[in-house]
Design a protein that fits this description.
Elements: H1 2-20, H2 31-48, H3 51-67, H4 72-92, H5 98-102, H6 108-111, H7 114-117, H8 120-135, H9 141-159, H10 161-189, H11 196-250, H12 255-263, H13 274-287
Helix pairs in contact: 1-11, 2-10, 4-11, 4-12, 8-11, 9-11, 10-11, 11-12
Length: about 290
């Protein structure tokens, strides 16, 4: 939503200011310039990436769509689920949560947390490492931490493919705009019998290419890439919360203290306070969520 609002503000400011200064929008409508710039950008993207990278961009787009919903409520639900799992494992042993993590879709414990169930990335991360804790016996916390950090790094790399692709396209847009402008100037200069007025119009049309290239780069593609980078950071924070909670549990801390470690990994403006989390966990016990 905010990216759409931002785009509208860019368009209104640029074209609205141009009209208010006495300019006419007619000369700016140059579909052939858009074809040159846009087609060159798409072609460069295809040439710069293999099939694996292009499919990665599409996959990361679907994953990042879910990360727009990461907020305080989502993080609270995540911490309540982790607390529930760790509490049950302390009470019944690690084998007590085996059925839950092997089949979370049919687990009453997981079904009480629909936001986590709807996010395969978070769900798989939790189940994978809880499963290792169940089957690994006295697993080495340091080795498990290294594995979690490696997976988070790989996920970050995969999710950042879209941002990297849009950044590179944005870098190329001004240059493609210059290409379109130069081609327009060449066309104008090849018409030997053109009047000064006609020549001026053709040169103006050619310069629209430079304008469009710069506008697309800094008004559209760069902001989109930055937006994606912010969403990648949100996804990473959620995974770091899980990581810190699991590590604290492996080091022998009680579930409520372990969840407090995970809380500290979140952004300050989105994480509940220590007292809020304590109250939420207390209420979850009463309502049966935990």
């Amino acid at each position: 939503m905010f990216i759409a609002i931002g785009y509208l503000v860019v368009l209104f400011s640029v074209f609205g200011g141009y009209v208010l200064s006495g300019g006419s929008l007619g000369p700016l409508w140059q579909p052939t310039e858009l074809l040159i710039i846009g087609g060159a950008g798409v072609g460069a993207f295809i040439a710069a990436n293999n099939r694996k990278a292009m499919m990665g961009v599409l996959r990361s787009a679907s994953r990042l769509k879910r990360s727009t919903k990461y907020n305080k409520a989502t993080y609270v639900e995540l911490m309540v689920l982790l607390y529930t799992l760790l509490t049950k494992s302390k009470r019944e042993g690690m084998k007590g949560i085996e059925n839950d993590i092997e089949d979370p879709q049919n687990s009453p414990m997981f079904q009480k947390h629909p936001k986590i169930m709807a996010d395969p990335m978070l769900l798989n991360f939790i189940c994978d490492y809880m499963r290792m804790m169940v089957g690994g016996g006295n697993i080495n916390p340091h080795e498990l931490d290294e594995l979690m950090l490696h997976e988070i790094e790989e996920l970050e790399h995969e999710l950042s493919l879209s941002a990297d692709a849009f950044n590179k396209v944005a870098d190329a847009m001004p240059a493609f705009g210059i290409v379109a402008a130069v081609m327009g100037v060449v066309k104008a200069l090849t018409i030997a019998d053109a009047t000064p007025q006609q020549m001026g119009e053709m040169i103006a049309h050619a310069l629209v290419g430079t304008f469009l290239g710069i506008l697309l780069a800094y008004g559209f593609f760069n902001p989109l890439a930055t937006k994606i980078e912010r969403q990648v950071a949100e996804s990473e924070k959620a995974l770091q919360c899980i990581r810190m909670t699991i590590l604290a549990s492996l080091h022998g801390y009680q579930p409520q203290v372990a969840v407090e470690f995970g809380r500290k990994a979140l952004h300050m403006d989105e994480r509940p306070t220590s007292m809020e989390l304590e109250e939420i966990l207390r209420e979850s016990k009463k309502t049966g969520t935990a």
